[in-house]
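Same chain as my last thread, 85 residues:
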Amino acid sequence: MDIIKILLPVILISLLALLTINMAQKKSKKQSRNQKLEGNYMSEGMAIGMCLGMAVSIGLDSDNIGIGLSIGMLLGMVVGMNIKK
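reply #2:
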C-alpha cells in the first residue's frame, strides 16, 4: 500500500505533463500554419515544473512541498524559456 501512495502521484503527474506537452505541440503546429509567432514555452514549462516539483517533494518528504514547488517552477521556467515556438 505504501508503494501505491508513492507511485500514484508520480504516475498521474507524469501523465498530465505528457498531455500538456502534447497539447502545446498541437497548438503550436496549428498556429505556425496560420502565422509565424515568436515566443517560448515559459508558461507551459512553469506548469509542468510545478507539478513535477510537487510530486518529487511529496515523494521525498511531505514537509517541503513549498520548496519543491518553487524549485520545480524555476527549473520549468528556465527550460520553457529555452525552447522556441
